């Protein structure tokens, strides 16, 4: 038996993680996340128990099912269905100090939640879902530099794949954050594959409030 198998079969403790997503009827949609959680658990000799929760169930029944979880993961997705359930999930995590990892849309809904409930911008939203807002805290990426250093332009009429930025992006990690601690560096390059991103026009105001 290899060392990895031994660690997997003989964990020292366990954790319970709620994964709140939109495609729970097809868990293969989250295959890479499930594998990452398992391997992270092996590294720390921890059994990772994942509770798969449909974000529409959070909309219908509230956040009671999230109680007692050690952490919450909200993955990505497309379209408006189930988004309000993800926003409620982010609010629960923030208000109850539960570790929260938002990936793609999961990160974006955390920004929307903070803008609504901390900044007081009740109409805050992403332009993916509505243009009827004075606080589009998440918006379509319309311009970026490609790997060759040339500017690429897109607009809302472009096809879905054509409006998705691909490739590595330099990320500056704030000191004192868990991300900075995990990477051990102030600056990293990560793969970036998004159509929408946090709107830079609101970052200063959100940071003043503790975001």
Write a brief caption for the model.
This is CTP synthase (glutamine hydrolyzing). The protein is α/β, with parallel strands linked by helices. It is built from seven helices and eleven strands.
Structural features, described:
The structure is a single chain. It is built from seven helices and eleven strands. By secondary structure, it is α/β, with parallel strands linked by helices. The longest helix is centred in the first third of the chain and has 14 residues. The termini are far apart. Helix 1 packs across helix 2 and helix 3 packs across helix 4. Pfam families: GATase. Keywords: ATP-binding, Glutamine amidotransferase, Ligase, Nucleotide-binding, Pyrimidine biosynthesis.
Per-chain topology:
Layout: H1 3-9, E1 13-21, H2 31-44, E2 46-54, H3 55-61, E3 71-74, H4 83-95, E4 100-102, H5 105-117, E5 125-126, E6 136-140, E7 143-145, E8 151-153, E9 168-172, H6 178-183, E10 187-191, E11 196-198, H7 203-208
Parallel strand pairs: 1-2, 1-3, 3-4, 5-6
Antiparallel strand pairs: 6-11, 7-8, 9-10
Helix pairs in contact: 1-2, 3-4, 4-5
